[in-house]
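In practice, a research group might receive sequence data for several interacting partners and want a quick structural hypothesis before committing to experiments. The following worked case mirrors that situation: the sequences arrive first, and a predicted assembly follows.
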Amino acid sequence: EVEQHFLSNYFSTS
Amino acid sequence: MFEARLIQGSILKKILDAIKDLVTDASWDCSPNGMSLQAMDTSHVSLVSVSLNSDGFDKYRCDRNLTLGMNLISLSKIIKCAANDDTIIIKAGDGGDKITLLFEAQNESEVAEYEIKLMNLDSEYLGIPDTTYNVTIKMPSNKFQRICRDLSQIGDAVTISCAKDGVRFGAAGDLGSGSIRLAQTATSDKPEDSVTISMQEALCQSFALKYLNHFAKATPLSAQVTLSMSPDVPLGEPLLFNVCVVEYNISDNDDENPSTIGFIRYYLAPKIDD
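A structural hypothesis for the assembly, expressed as C-alpha cells:
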C-alpha cells in the first residue's frame, strides 16, 4: 500500500 | 425552483461512473452558472471537482443557489435506469428534502419519474488555489487508462518522468519492472490521438496507481486527458505545487460542432517517499 499525503494539508479549508 | 434538462443524459451517467467509487456522499452546488460538486475520497487523499456549465443544458433554471446533498451510490443506481439516449431532467423545489429525476425517451412516448431523498452533509470544503503548473501532458485518455491498468500488475505506484521529447511511466515491484514511454507526436490529423507536452523543467514524481485507476474511470467522457504537475519545490514553499491534477473535459457529443460544457478534475499528492 502506497503512503500518501492528505490533500487537506495542501489546500486551505474554507 | 431548480430545473436542469440534459438532452444527452448519458453524460450524467458517465460522470457518476467516474466518481461514485471514489466518493460516497457529496453535495451538488447549483447556481445560475451551473452545477458543481467537490468532494474528497473517504481517505482524504484525493479530491474530485466536477463542473457543468448552465449553457451545456438544453434548459436550465436556478432561481436561487441550492445545495443538493446526496448519496452518489443511490443517485447512480437511479441514473442507471435511464437509457443511454434518454433526456434527463433534474428538478428540485426550494427547501425540499428530495429531487425528482425524469427520464424522457427519445420518441417522447415514455417518461420515467424517480425521486431521491436529499441529505444534510457537513462536508469539508477545500479552497483550490489557481496555480500554474510547470508540466502539462495532454494524451489520449484511453492510453492513460491502459497504462495505469497495465502498470498496476507490476506495482502500487507509477513514476512519471517527463522531458521535452516524451514522457515515461514506470512501475517496479516484487515480480520485476515495467515502463511505457510516449513520444510527443507531431501535428496530427487526429488531435484526439496526439501526445502534447508543455514544460518549463524536467520532472519525476510517483503516484499511487490505486487512485489514478479511479480517475481513469472518467475516460468515456473525453478522448484526451490532461496531467498537470510541478516538480518538488524547496522546503518552505507552499506544498500545493506538488499536487497532480488529472483533468477530463466534458463535451457535448455534437459531431459537427462539439463544445466543452464542463470538466472533471482529480487532485492527488505524490506518494510519500520510502
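Before designing any experiment, note the following. Chain B touches chain A at residues 40, 43-47, 124-129, 156-157, 208-211, 239-240, 242-243, 267-272 (CB under 8 Å). The CA atoms of residues 3 and 91 of chain B lie 5 Å apart.
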